[in-house]
User: What shape does this take?
Amino acid sequence: MNNLITLLRTPSKMGLLDEAEKEMHGSRLEQINDQIEVVNRSYDESLETHFQYFNSKKERPGIRKHLLSHAQIICSTLNSCRSREMEELFLEHQGSSPFLCCILDEASQCTEPESLTPLAFGITKLILIGDPKQLPATVLSKVAQKKGFAQSLFNRFYSVRDENKDGVIMLTTQYRMVSSICEWPSRYFYAGKLETDESLIRNGPCHEYRVLNVVDGQELREEQSFINQQEAAVVARIVRLFLDSPLTRWKSIGVITFYKSQKLCIIEQLKKVGIKSNCSASTVDVNTVDSFQGREKDIIVISCVRASSQAEENLVGGIGFITSLSRINVSVTRAKEMLVICGHFLTLQRDGTWRDLISDASSRNVAHDVSRHSSCEDLRSVLMRAPANESTIVNQVVHQQMVASFSRQSGMDLNWSLKCLMDSGWVYDSAAYRFNLLKRTFKIPLAAFIEPEQQQQQMIASFSEQSGMDSNWSFKCLEDCGWDYDRAAYVFTELKRTFKIPLAAFIEPEQQKQQMVASFSEQSGMDSNWSLKCLMDSGWVYDSAAYRFNLLKRTFKIPLAAFIEPEQQQQQMIASFSEQSGMDSNWSFKCLEDCGWDYDRAAYVFIEFKAAGKIPLEAFVK
Assistant: This one.
């Protein structure tokens, strides 16, 4: 059968068939036609199976490669930049680099071999961005650490830099911390060169910087880690204080500690005071210093953990890796608006860095003594600014009542109600108008509502009406886009424009069918009837129809009558037939024309006549 197909697809060239020749070959042609019909049926079934598989799985790598090859900027991790796709696309361009330059962010946090990974693409310009004063790469092997494997390429270059030459640039303006938080790390780690942008001037309800001495804190060893339950209790009350205040409850809060066991201890203490942490519904995140690298929060509370007993305080000894300069630097530079450091001063002062921090805090009058018995009210006087006058207190009460009322009317939780009122300058009617406008256009996240089901139903109904899709498909589209209405609308428009949405998704698919037929006709050059037939045969899957069309067009299986302007297809057929048969274009044209522009039939006739020596020699190019 394969030989037969090869025989039929080998182009032929010949002229007129007289009646005698038709009779001679009639029975043979009849046999061949039956076999062709069987082959075509098998071919169509195989093609349909191929389309189903191709569109579901095999299409994705092709799309990824297309996006990568046409992108102006490629963002990647160091490991994935040497993926198979990247290597196939760009490693072959060794002669001329496919990239203008490579920008490596957090360059001080990766090992030297990792930094060299992108250089395989012929990079000629490398920009390293990082902070040598913060955490290095994570290397678990003690042997590798001793051999210097944790050193980054960034740190190696930085350590041998020449101050008198270009090549090392320090960005001296920071846009995260208020100036009071930035003051000590700037002086201690960056020689006073780190400055705060002028726009970061805040006068919120909290004091920006406080260092608290937990006088009765006591560390306990827990396997290879440490916990301090007294300090954890103080931290939990501080967080409770911020969440109870209507002026700070909507702010993001991070609790940083140096030990994993203390992290679990703090989470347990937070549960005791009714706070959920480290979940999507919570604004409180408890984690270790290493996990907070590169992150930021409005309010940061640090638990230092280490606190020796009176008998141990006179002993000479270290206080563990909380003396790591990079970890101290990371922990005290995560806060945007307020930083609270909790520790045991007598223990921390054994280390020079902590001693300097405590001395600085004392000189600035931001160091205070607290204990596990300190109530929220005691902590409030230390951490929160006192109301300016009695009217301010009245205003706070009024604001609380407004927030509660707005929450009941809008269905939003207290945090979102507070935010809406604050954004509207505490003008209730303005906040209500703005809320209704944003709700009507689905600009408010579902997470803002106490019971989001009603809003979901309204979104689905609106999306279904706007898109023409049924409720199930509208639900799926919104859910896939995280219930972001505008994003779902954009995705829908893009998918509809490229006909990626099944017709079954539409309530009235006729209009979409007409658009598909018109687009397919324009792209393929076929008339609307043949475009309709091609789409129907492919189950109205546009990409499958396009793939099938290109395949059939390339093998000249589509009749010329299907094309609006068939001349170009005729020229391609003649050129291919001439190349395959060896005849010149005139004889190729004659043979195809005599066979009704049926390429396979012309190929068969050519082979038969050539075998019988009935084709004149002058028909051949050579």
User: Anything to note?
Assistant: Residues 2-61+566-619 form a domain with the Helicase, Ruva Protein; domain 3 fold (CATH 1.10.8.10). Confidence is low (pLDDT under 50) at residues 1-20.
